């Protein structure tokens, strides 16, 4: 059957509501089983500009599928987008998914010039995984306990399709395996405390180092005002300071989104002043965050990304129980080329 492809519009609220609440869609995506029509209409009336959504309609105009892209807003990941796809239960196996997938990939390649399209699929959604493989998506890893479904934390298969031009993708294979950590100076005293908005200048100075930018997704020339706002908004952020009161490390945990089915997940980030590498600052920050999550917060899964050639950071995370789950190819822009990142995670609590 020929399907008409067009952009999702506010007039589609009722049809999109029916699609999003289909039992098979709820089971195999991150949708909720009960959604109000009013909430769907509000979404479409105020549709986020970083989401591009297309719909598939039958010749008589019935909406039977929706697919699209969540563009990344961090500047060093603007080359990547998260793909999503939903097909109504009674239209499964009729070519709707393939039609939408081709349209979205054409849009991504020829109009947005995206380099990396990524997705997560519930591990037992074999039909969808096979469809993605036919269109060039490759398996990159498995995120353990990622999706809360019917009371069980299910694994997600992580896949991506790359479209780099020659020389753009640094393809830095896992350099950490054979790396030797450098010798460091004797340890100096430091202390930890919760961050405050007044730490903005110190944190901005910490983020200004080239090694910090290279090993994170921060931009050069950090904005003190932006850091003041970020520290004001952060609930779980720590700083390390030396005996003179200078900030030598920063760490935080945050939720990746507001989807209830991902409420058990928190992300983690740590930055240490290059002169303090090997002094135990990163370990202390990480231990403090792990204790806070384990003792006082409801998160079950703690995850992070790290450039795959950052041997010291990978060794630290593995020391504290983080496992390598996926190699995300060309995930982060660094010094003009796209580099691989590792997704690492650990289970904080199982019950």
Compact summary:
The protein is α+β, with helices and mostly antiparallel strands and 351 residues long. It folds into two domains: 4-162, Gcn5-related N-acetyltransferase (GNAT) (Aminopeptidase, 3-Layer(aba) Sandwich); 186-347, Aminopeptidase, CATH 3.40.630.
What would you say this structure looks like, in words?
Residues 176-181 have low confidence and may be disordered. A 7-stranded mixed beta sheet has the order 1-2-3-4-5-7-6, with helices on both faces. A 7-stranded mixed beta sheet has the order 8-9-10-11-12-14-13. The chain contains 10 helices and 14 strands. 37% of the residues are buried. The chain has 2 domains: 4-162, Gcn5-related N-acetyltransferase (GNAT) (Aminopeptidase, 3-Layer(aba) Sandwich), CATH 3.40.630; 186-347, 3-Layer(aba) Sandwich (Aminopeptidase). The chain is α+β, with helices and mostly antiparallel strands. The termini are far apart. Helix 1 (13-20) crosses helix 3 and helix 6 (200-207) crosses helix 8. Helix content is 27%, strand content 33%.
